[in-house]
Amino acid sequence: MTNAVDVRAAPPRELLPRGPEQALPIHLLGRLIDWALVAAAAVMVSLVFFNVCVHAMGRDLAETTETCEFLMVWVTFLGGASIIRRSGHMTITEFLDKLDDRRRRVADLAVQLLALAVLAILFRNGLLIVETNWSNMLTVLQISMSWQYMPLSVGSGASMIFVAYDIYQILQGKSREERYGADE
Asked: Which of 15, 84, 132, 144 is the most exposed place for a label (fewest CB within 10 A)?
């Protein structure tokens, strides 16, 4: 008798686990961000591979490097929003875990309100940076530098939506486990 596992019987695992049910607009925004991240990563991998091949022939395409740098900024801020949606950022919960349910929700609410305030500042300042850089151009791609600064506001705006949704759920009395699922 063997202890082999029939992999055909196991349900397929999602690349990015969905977690507890979310409101449809939140879920759709999250999936849009996730797929934008996948697409950007695929483009970056392809461009780097192409540039390595070209470099092996003694050439270099500056466009690929600047495009990957451009995409990396977008991936950074959209990735931050994606992980905020899942409450996946590193947290120190040594004291929070000792609180009863009501006090834990109050603490979570305070943390999320602070996060919302910081994100609002980032969003506003990002818009100001975008506004002032429309006439500046990226050296190689010759597109406005505002497109490279825009992810700060886009990522912060999406993060604000996810945090505001979490605040709504906290005010509805949902525990952390109900909002994000049990920790694995």
From this structure: 15
Q: Which of 70, 86, 76, 71 is nearest to 29 (CA)?
A: 86
Backbone angles phi, psi at 170, to 5 degrees: -60, -45
Residue of 88, 80, 69, 78 whose CA lies nearest to 32: 78
Q: Indicate the domain borders of the chain.
A: 24-180
Beta carbons of 77 and 115 less than 8 angstroms apart: no
Write down the mean pLDDT value for the chain: 88
Are 77 and 135 in contact, with CB atoms under 8 Å apart?
no
52 versus 14: the higher-pLDDT residue is 52
Confidence (pLDDT) at 60: 83
143 vs 141: CA distance, rounded Å = 6
Say yes or no to pLDDT of 130 above 50. yes
Burial tier of 181 (Cβ tally within 10 Å: 0-12, 13-18, 19+)? middle
Exposure string for 15-24, b = 16+ CB within 10 A, e = fewer: ebeebeebee
If you average pLDDT over each of 80-89, 94-103, 123-132, which comes out highest?
123-132
Please report which confidence band the pLDDT of residue 7 belongs to, taking 50, 70 and 90 as the band edges.
Answer: very low
**Look-up of token digits 């109900």:** 178
- Please, which residues bridge with residue 144 across strands? 137
